[in-house]
Write a structure and sequence with these properties.
It comes from Kineococcus aurantiacus. It holds the Pfam family DUF2867. This is DUF2867 domain-containing protein. This protein is α+β, with helices and mostly antiparallel strands. The protein has one domain. It contains three helices and five strands, in the order E-H-H-E-E-E-E-H. A five-stranded antiparallel sheet has the order 1-5-4-3-2, covered by helices on one side.
Length: 150
């Protein structure tokens, strides 16, 4: 089986990409846009992730990276079983697709990043180290929220 994701439609050769998946919780919706909007909402952020994002907001301007508002992470389109969140900035381009595979009983989060310059590479170095645990935690928390347990 070949895997593909809509994150690669406009970023065929990212500098960074990963995929994380969880079991689709009982009672959670199958709409990928609902998953994407919820995952990037404050109510689905685990406390330690919210704290890390607050630190990011405080430190980002020190390295010339603009602060990101919550509205920056909106769904730009739905393609098949995936909802795409896309953010382009001066230092990097970010794509994140939340996919819901009802038949397999899985929710997956595919991320792709294109680093545009030295500032982007400097900024993303520590972000890349934390990205996996952050996404895993956000996916699990989103599943609990959407299943009515969070």
């Amino acid at each position: 089986m070949t895997f593909t994701s809509c994150v690669f439609d406009d970023m065929a050769r990212p500098d960074y990409c990963d995929l994380h998946a969880i079991a689709l919780p009982a009672g959670a919706p199958a709409d990928p846009a609902v998953w994407a909007r919820t995952m990037f909402s404050p109510r689905a952020a685990p406390p330690w992730v919210a704290a890390a994002l607050a630190v990011r907001q405080a430190l980002a301007p020190l390295v010339g990276v603009p602060r990101a508002g919550h509205e920056a992470f909106g769904v730009v389109r739905v393609a098949g079983d995936e909802a795409l969140v896309a953010v382009d900035d001066v230092h990097l381009d970010f794509r994140c697709a939340l996919g819901v595979d009802v038949e397999a009983g899985r929710v997956r989060c595919t991320t792709a990043v294109r680093l545009k310059n030295r500032r982007g590479r400097f900024y993303f170095r520590p972000v890349a180290l934390a990205h996996g645990p952050v996404v895993e935690s956000m996916l699990r928390r989103t599943g609990k929220v959407l299943a009515g347990h969070g």
